[in-house]
């Protein structure tokens, strides 16, 4: 921060430095990165957290690994999921990729 302030001071005195144009350039670059990368990722994370809180027993899900199953029990830190008639596993909440059937409901 001190280097930036010194550069501004030097640029105002006409002795060289980075100047206001360079500062505006970097602000513009940060703004582009924010709106193209950071903001959409935060929105997606928020939607995933909402999905996890809304899941209940009987919901059909797809895990991040691609396994399809039915939630049989909701626990504090995860779910019990039935993947086949005699195969029931406990998974953590972050392993849920999406609710099956929500593929066409994604906002554009």
Give a verbal description of the structure.
This protein is an alpha+beta fold. The protein has 2 domains: 54 residues; 46 residues, SH3 type barrels. It is built from 2 helices and 5 strands; from the N terminus they run H-H-E-E-E-E-E. Strand 3 and strand 4 form a beta hairpin. The chain starts with a helix and ends in a 9-residue tail after the last strand.
Total number of helices:
2
- Summarize the helix and strand pattern as letters: HHEEEEE
Rg from C-alpha positions? Answer: 24 Å
Q: Tell me, what's the shape?
A: rod-shaped
**Are there runs of 5+ residues with pLDDT below 50, and where?**
none
Return the structural class.
alpha+beta
Termini distance? 40 Å
Taken together, the total number of domains comes to 2
Mean pLDDT: 85
Q: What's the total number of strands? A: 5
Keywords:
5 strands; 108 residues; 2 domains; rod-shaped; alpha+beta
Secondary structure: elements and pairs:
Blueprint: H1 2-12, H2 19-54, E1 60-63, E2 68-74, E3 78-84, E4 87-92, E5 96-99
Antiparallel strand pairs: 1-2, 1-5, 2-3, 3-4
In short:
With about 110 residues, this protein is an alpha+beta fold. It contains 2 helices and 5 strands, in the order ααβββββ.
